[in-house]
Specification:
single chain; alpha+beta; GMP Synthetase, Chain A, domain 3; 3 helices
């Protein structure tokens, strides 16, 4: 795909334009999550999660759903010496995000995979997807 078409530079970034003509970054198109007809910005989910005082950094990624679209998984690195229960993080997010943006899955890791320029390698996170260490809000533990 050509980077320029019709005198526009196609960067792969998603923006919205307000009534005054100002553009606002929404997300990288390849990182956008589609869930039950809603477009979810991984950037917005991460911004919310990163507000939690026990969180050092996070990455939101799409994982396949049994319904054919995506579910939201948040991969979290906690602050040194901090611990955080997945349900507590979910409740924190539930107080700040619309219901359709809430992560179904939470996974804690020691570090996020990064490129030499320190960008999170979300493709690697998607490769590992959901595993036995991943918390699922739809699973009730007796």
């Amino acid at each position: 795909v050509k980077a320029t078409r019709n005198q526009w530079l196609h960067t792969g970034d998603g923006f919205i334009r307000d009534a005054d003509g100002n553009f606002f970054f929404v997300d990288r198109q390849k990182d956008a999550i589609r869930r039950r007809g809603e477009n979810i910005s991984s950037f917005e989910v991460e911004a919310c999660v990163n507000q939690h005082p026990a969180v050092l950094e996070s990455a939101a990624v799409a994982v396949p759903s049994e319904f054919g679209e995506d579910e939201v998984m948040i991969v979290v690195v906690t602050q040194p010496g901090e611990s955080l229960a997945p349900n507590d993080l979910y409740e924190f997010c539930a107080s700040k995000l619309p219901k359709f943006m809430l992560p179904r899955y939470v996974r804690f890791v020691d570090a996020l995979p990064k490129t030499p320029t320190q960008k999170v390698q979300k493709a690697k996170l998607r490769e590992h997807s959901v595993d036995a260490t991943t918390w699922d809000r739809n699973v009730v533990v007796a």
